[in-house]
Amino acid sequence: MRPSPSNWRRRLRRASLAAVALLVLPAAAWRVLGAVYPLPAEALADPAPSVEVLARDGSPLSSFTNADGNWHVPVPITEISPRFLQAVIAIEDRRFRSHNGVDPLAIARAAVQNATSLRVVSGASTLTMQTVRLAMPHERTLGEKCVEAFRAWQLEERLPKDAILERWANLAPFGGNLVGVEAASRRWFGKHARDLSLAEAALLAGLPQSPSRLRPDRHPDAARARRDRVLARMREQGLIGEAEEAEACAEPVVVRPETRILLAPHLSLAAARLQPRCARVRTTIDPAVQEAAERALAFHLARIDSDGAAAVVLDNATGDVLAYVGSPDFLDERGDGQVDAASSPRSPGSSLKPFLFALAFEDGETAPERLLSDAPLAHSSYRPENCDGGSSGPVTAREALVRSLNLPAVRLLGSVGVDRLVATLCGCGVGTLTDPDRYGLSLVLGGGEVTLIELTEAYSTLARLGVHVPARMTGEGPVNGTRVLDEGACWLLADVLRDARAIEAQGFYADVARPFALKTGTSSGQRDAWAFAYGPRFTVGVWFGHPDGRASTSLRGAAAAPCAAGIYASVEREGAWYERPAGVVEREACSTSGQAPRPGLCPRTRRVLELEGTPRLPCEVHAPSDPSVPPRILSPASGSRYLPSDGAARVALRASSTIGSGRLLWYVDGAPVGTTAPHQEILHAFPRGPHRITCVQEKGGATTSEIVVE
Questions:
Q1: Distance between CA 484 and CA 342 in Å, rounded?
Q2: C-beta separation of 378 from 683 below 8 A
Q3: How many CB atoms lie within 10 A of CB 419?
Q4: 183 Cβ partners below 8 Å, 6+ apart?
Q5: 471, 64, 70: which is closest to 278 by C-alpha?
Q6: Are 644 and 675 a contacting pair, CB within 8 Å?
Q7: DSSP label at residue 302
Q8: Which contiguous run of DSSP H or E holds residue 676?
Q9: How far from chain centre, in Å, is Cα 87?
Q10: Does residue 20 surpass a pLDDT of 50?
Q11: Residue 535 — φ and ψ, nearest 5°?
């Protein structure tokens, strides 16, 4: 239906008035208006770019759309093909270099065309006006058109021509969620905007007129027709010759999209979220180490009944995350591939035991060759057991840790204290253990939950012999470490965990020519399998399990150990090991007890390594029988203070005696609480307040210890 004569006259009048206003408005008046209505900041603000995540060597890892869901990769004008810039000017604004933001000739032509055609044929928008509209979207009314022209004049006053052209090239739509010529060039042709051919440049220059209608992947014929029109304009304006035009027009429209790279996707996504306004984020990922970790996980996952797997590799010198695998396949939604298992809290099983033993070595509570009790114990309703359900009696601390025995560890935690262990783990980077009262003595057997990334960070503290450096996925430069554990205690711990028996206990062969410390963990019910390998330079953490928490008989730490050892061997090629710190000394000790030998009583002695300050107690295994010598309370030490859990502190009662296997009678605040043999123990729940503990030998002699439960 054609407009009525009255509508026709109204449209003609509006178009003519707009043209006159824009043509004759004095420059002085524009400047007055500019002072009253300055150019808004958003006209010069850059939209959030897509985030490209890079490895430490600058190679690409992954890329992500911006907050608006668009692919936007801003580039300077020097990184854009000159042919593209020529094509844009030719088709959109041939007098761009000469006008001041508004083209009077284009306005006059548009006014006549629109009025005579009785419809909008041409908008007369210059590239500068389009840039304003792209930066400050608004309705396309006559009034807004005048404001747009005014803002374009202001933009010309503020920026040089090339800067305006650069902004247009980075803001223009190119189909789908592509914003800017660089994103379009990569998506449609798999190359940078600086490398566009003449035909490709002309095709992209024509897209912003109607990005959806001209998409080359969906409408190649329409895109080609528009491209050829752009090429014709370029020839008409003397920018290209007839031969160039013919050659470009003969080129087929073929979409060759850039191959999307998706390496270390979970870490890349986290890095992108941390720096959303950065176009490029350089991470600490080493592509070779990342590939080795992924390959090792895939190899061992095929041999374990597990849907999930994760691995983390840290550089001990800097805390840099060299590899980060959160799942076997990020794109496998059926298998929860996008769930980041490396950052998901899970039960660590026995993986926390090394930190407990390090504290016990530091306190002088025990030493690698000292004896611990691997005997059954009961703690209120808590009755821990070893994995095999048995017990071995007296064992050295080295053997207890190498074999990952539960009973000695629970006893040791009763002496060291749950709060102390939690505070130490927190200092090592474990942030998920926030409520010591909730865990109790079960903490050392996996009673709390940790994440692989933070526990690997904690193990790297052990690898630095007690100095904590936070793990980092971005950034570079020097780091500041904080001492959390004694250097000598951590050296002794590493010496225990690198013991050949520690390797053999995992059921696989490892190259001992390149030593490393190894510890595994199996959560209750066999739902999680953990393994950690470390040395002076690198720390590796591995987890296997089902994301939904299902149990499996194959989910044991021993199954994860070969993977951790394999990854470690792939990154550590030098085989370096630690030098013994000055605080670790060699001593003569009884071969059986690991304590100071009693001349004439201990049949054999050996040299052992201990911290210099570890108490030199005489051998209690080969002690002379003397009823006049009272028993010695080994736990708790007199003067100790405890924090309660569930209203009470559960403390191990243990003593030695010089009269063989005679019974020891225990009293708390005057009331009998139980009977033990020497070196055996019972656990007793102490309410808040001071308490007096008495141990009486059946054949005479008694001693006391006083503690306070706060």
A1: 24
A2: yes
A3: 14
A4: 50, 70, 71, 72, 73, 174
A5: 64
A6: no
A7: T
A8: strand 671-676
A9: 45
A10: no
A11: -155, -165
pTM: 0.77
**Tokens coding 501:** 């028996």
Q: Which two tokens stand for residue 279?
A: 């176009």
- pLDDT higher for 106 or 368? 368
The secondary element (H helix, E strand) that includes residue 611 is strand 605-611
Predicted confidence (pLDDT) at residue 258 exceeds the cutoff of 80: no
Q: Nearest Cα to 79, choosing from 219, 186, 232, 226?
A: 186
pLDDT digits (tens, 9 = 90+) for 149-183: 888 888 888 899 999 999 999 999 999 999 999 99
Contact residues for 301 (Cβ-Cβ < 8 A; gap 6+): 309, 328, 544
Torsions phi, psi for 99 (to 5 deg):
-90, 170
| Cα–Cα distance for residue pair 329/338, rounded to 1 Å | 8
Q: Point out the catalytic residue in the list 50, 52, 63, 92.
A: 92
More confident residue, 3 or 315: 315
3-state DSSP assignment of residue 312: strand
Which residues is 635 bridged to in the sheet? 654
Residue 469: CA count within 13 A, CB half-sphere:
21
Q: What is the reported pLDDT for 505?
A: 59
What is the predicted pLDDT for the residue at 440?
85
d(CA 305, CA 124): 67
Question: What would the pLDDT profile of 222-247 be if each residue is shown by its tens digit?
Answer: 999 999 999 999 999 999 999 999 99
Q: Determine the residue type at 532.
A: F
> How far is the C-alpha of 150 from the C-alpha of 27, rounded, in Å?
11
Whether 350 is a known active-site residue: answer: yes
Euclidean distance between CA atoms 625 and 191, whole angstroms: 88
Q: What string of DSSP letters covers 453-516?
A: HHHHHHHHHHHTTSEE---BSB--S----EE-S-HHHHHHHHHHHTSHHHHHTTTS---TTS--
Q: Does 118 score more than 50 pLDDT?
A: no
| Spatial separation of the C-alpha atoms in residues 472 and 177, rounded to whole Å | 32
Exposed (0-12), middle (13-18) or buried (19+): which is 574, by Cβ within 10 Å? exposed
Residue 512 · residue 545 · CB < 8 Å:
no
Out of 81, 350, 415, 442, the active site residue is 350
| Residue 191 φ then ψ, to 5° | -145, 170
Alpha-helical regions (H) of 207-350: 220-236, 242-250, 265-274, 287-301
CA distance 152 to 96: 12
Chain centre distance of CA 637: 42
Sign of CA dihedral 382, 386, 391, 397: negative
The verdict on whether 347 is a catalytic residue reads: no
DSSP 378-395: -BTTB----TTS---EEE
Helix (H) or strand (E) holding 198: helix 198-206
Provide Rg for the chain, Cα atoms.
38
pLDDT number for residue 316: 97
Question: Is beta strand 393-396 parallel, antiparallel or unpaired with respect to 371-374?
Answer: antiparallel
pLDDT at 625 over 90: no
